[in-house]
Design brief:
single chain, alpha+beta, Alpha-Beta Plaits, SH3 type barrels, five-stranded antiparallel β-sheet, 5 helices, 15 strands, disordered N terminus
Amino acid sequence: MGRVRVNVGDFRGELNMPTQWYALHSKPRKERQVHDYLVQQGIETYFPTLTVKPANPRSSRIRAFFPRYLFVHVDLEETGTSVLQWLPGAVGLIAFDAVPAVIPDSFVVELKRRLARIERTGGLDLSELHRGDRVEITSGAFAGYDAVFDVYLSGEQRVQVLMHWLGREVKFKVDADAVRKRSRR
């Protein structure tokens, strides 16, 4: 019986799963530039964006979901970290104790699913709420609570609301899609 040689390189994804998602930090408003450069280099990326209806009609309608961040799907042993560290517009990989942080595949899949759902409903409307409007928090830790809209947080898809908590007014930051304007009664 003859020997069969198997090239382990053909099974790298199954054996060691070295191709993983990592978060890449970019310079301010350079996410698209970094994304486009990486795509040209043949590196799989995910740059999560949302269509928004901004309060200012001259503002961009496409916004980064995570300003200054995008995701890369690479084998760091093969690609190396310096390629990602020194590319134009990038700051580097997010790392803890000098070890690049791995982003679970399930997180990226769920993020894509949620953003697609928001896009199907027409994107986020950032102009419908005004300071002082009464709102209901529809999801998250404070789901079901009433609050008062305070302000949109710049560069983020988050808002600040005011809630009466333990006898005083407290500011909370929540996702913009987690608040709904209360109808007048």
